[in-house]
Every structure is written in structure tokens, then in C-alpha cells.
Amino acid sequence: MLTKLKTYLWYFYEYMKYGDFLSVYASVNYLIFKKSHKKDRIIKTSLGKIFCRKNTNDFQFANFHYEWGVKKYLLEHKNEYSVFIDGGACIGDYSILLSRFDIRCIAFEPVLKNFDVLMKNLDLNNLKSKVKAFPIGLGDHNFKAKFIFNPVNTGASHIANAMELADCMAEIRTFDSLLPELKISIKDNILLKLDLEGMEVEAIHGASNFIRQYPNITFIMEDKHTGQYPIKDTLNKIASFEFGVVDEFNIFAKKIK
After folding, report:
1. 139-184: pLDDT as tens digits
2. Are residues 160 and 205 in the same domain?
3. Cβ distance 37 to 134 under 8 Å?
4. Domain around 57
């Protein structure tokens, strides 16, 4: 309870820092009724300018203290990396954050409604030359997938299962198949964040050649849906890794040279 209260106070501080009373109202409304503000808006945050869609929780992703455990890890280790890869980028908040530190950023977001907002946010912050974005999801083979788009919690969109009625189609590719066009040097220190709503293991399989060939790789992965052990087992079958906890939903995995 105290941890949640502390989080809410940090959210409140960040919104009030820029006089964003509407996001405070939207936060309370979302917390109680799962509803948001009724008009599209652009808000100023510690991350930069963020476009927030009406009736969504984009305003939450825009808050500097959202997923603070992950952001804290990134900021503490930012000087160790030359390339940041964001799998499941949603509106692009992590790439916007790290691009200010002269880190080359590559973002993947398969849901076109999210990808359009990601591109709008890069444009708002003059980052299209610093962040390369792809309307693609990461998996263990190349295919077209049926997706469920969550119109409120846009970051929770996922591949439809057999019992769900799909909202849209998305392209899924293996990271290995994309690697030639990404032009990542073998000397780069690479941080790869995966938040794929349960597709983390499949994305690892699709990046197996990359993991074997590149020596300086660190993953941050959400294990909320997949679980820690399938992720660890999959990685350790490809190469040797050391693991640690980032926060209650995320772990890190650093390749051992």
C-alpha cells in the first residue's frame, strides 16, 4: 500500500511540475472508472512533448515516473550502452528518454495505431533522425498476426488467441531477419528491452543468431506474463547470462563474455 501511495505521489508531482491538472484528473478517473480525458492532447513532461489520445492511458506512459524501476535502471546504466532496442515500444517513451544521451535507438511497435502515435511523438521532439522505428513485432518466425488492440490500455495490445476476435493485423519478424538492415556493430554495447505481452520467449528464439554473435548484450524483459524461468532457460540454451531483478515485473539478463 505504501509503495503504491509513493508511486501515485510521484505521478502527481510530475504532472503538477508542468501544471498538468487534466492528467491528474485523468489519473483519478482512470484509477476508479477506467476512463480517461475526452479529447486528444499534447502534454509537456520530463520526457518531452507527448501526444495523448483521448480515452486512453497514454498520459500514464508519458509520466516520467511510470515504470520507474525500469527507467531508474536505464538511467543508472545509460553510459554503458551505445544502442538501445525497444521491442514493444508502444508510444516511444523509452526511446525518447534515452535518445537525449546520444544513444542510438531502434523501436519496434506492431500495432499501427500505436506506431502512428510513436512517430508523432518522435516528430514532436525532433527525434526522427535519432530514433529508427519499425511497424513490426518481434517473434520466432516471419508471419502476419491477428492482434487485439486495447483501446484504453494501449500498451496491453497482444496477439489474438483462438477464442478472441481480432481487431487488426500486424507484421511479426524475427530479429535475426532484420539484423542486416539495422547495421549494428559487433563492437556496440546493446541494451534490448522486451515488453511483448507474453511473446518474450518467441522473440528470444528469433534473435538466437544475434545473441550468439554479439558479445555485449543486456536484456530487460517483462516477466509478468511469461515468467522468469522460461526466459532464463531459453537464453541460457543460446549463451551464458547473469540475471537480476529490475522491479516486480522486470528482470535483466547480461551476456557473460
Report:
1. 999 999 999 999 999 999 999 988 888 889 999 999 999 999 999 9
2. yes
3. no
4. 2-61
